[in-house]
Amino acid sequence: MNNDELINEGTNQVNHNRPYIPLGCHPIDTGYYLISTNEIARMYKEVVTWIQRRTPGAMIVGNPRLGKTRAIKYLVNSLPSVDIVGLDTPIYTIKCSKFKNPNESDFFECLLKDVKHHTPLAGRAISKRRRLYNFLIEKGLGSSRSRVIMFLDDAQRLHELHYEWLMDIYNELESEGILLTVILVGQRELFDQRTAFLLSNKKQIIGRFMVDDYKFKGIGSIDDIRLCLKNYDEDAIYPLGTNWTFTRYFFPVQYKQGFRLSNFSDILLEVFQEVATETGSKGKIEIPMFYFSSTIENALRYLGIDGSNVEQITKSHWKYCIRMSGYINAERYSEVLKHDN
């Protein structure tokens, strides 16, 4: 079955009283939605443990495209409900930029921007540094837990000097009775950096930010897939305040008849395993969340009522959706890199 047949089979039907959503505005089209996964739940539990232990810093490490950035968003939204954190604890996500050489002014300017300070650009490095200190101290003292939490995304981009400046921030807040927790989130180069710091006797950096680590993984089991798909079936709702789950919105007639994406968990894992094998991938499958969610979005978009409106999703349909996600090409490229190394 070719691509045109895959997206044109079936009979498109009327809207079946679906709520009106302007074209391109559904979260499936915008990408602005979060779903829980088993891996996020495991990571969440670990991060809460770090916070309970008053750990000053730790690392979350994983390959690209596994969903670490989305996982951070999920944590930022969920952690305030934990009693040890509290609703008023400031939690910030810092996007680490890549600079050829560490620059103090650039570093503190980036932090000021990402904590949403109203004047991040003015002045020299010392002024930016002091503004950041004062801002974080004010926010920390204004919280009931006297705590500030920072997630540093793409932390593998940090240099040794950046860690020295982070220690300065930590010490400044600690002197005011505020606990700063820094969670480094990045790729496996973070492990190499930790080893390099150990060999160069930079134990103060390791002790402050790198003792604890969590290895973030992709989707690899039938339970992982089923939980993700159930989110689309039951928990992901739009418009808010309605009972229109993502699956129901794109498969309204089939949904009423018992159609659920989670019913296809076994066959979807089977197809992912097949295409991974075809690309030369060996060992246990680990599906990056980026490609998994893109596959599901393709199924909703192309196979649902706004596309070919199929009654059931076949293996050929799933393979088409996986291919459209870019997963197959990514796996091939990954295997080439493995052989080159």
Automatic annotation (TrEMBL):
<dbReference type="GO" id="GO:0005524">
    <property type="term" value="F:ATP binding"/>
</dbReference>
<keyword id="KW-0547">Nucleotide-binding</keyword>
<dbReference type="InterPro" id="IPR049945">
    <property type="entry name" value="AAA_22"/>
</dbReference>
<feature type="domain" description="ORC1/DEAH AAA+ ATPase">
    <location>
        <begin position="58"/>
        <end position="192"/>
    </location>
</feature>
<dbReference type="InterPro" id="IPR027417">
    <property type="entry name" value="P-loop_NTPase"/>
</dbReference>
<dbReference type="Pfam" id="PF13401">
    <property type="entry name" value="AAA_22"/>
</dbReference>
<protein>
    <submittedName>
        <fullName>ATP-binding protein</fullName>
    </submittedName>
</protein>
<keyword id="KW-0067">ATP-binding</keyword>
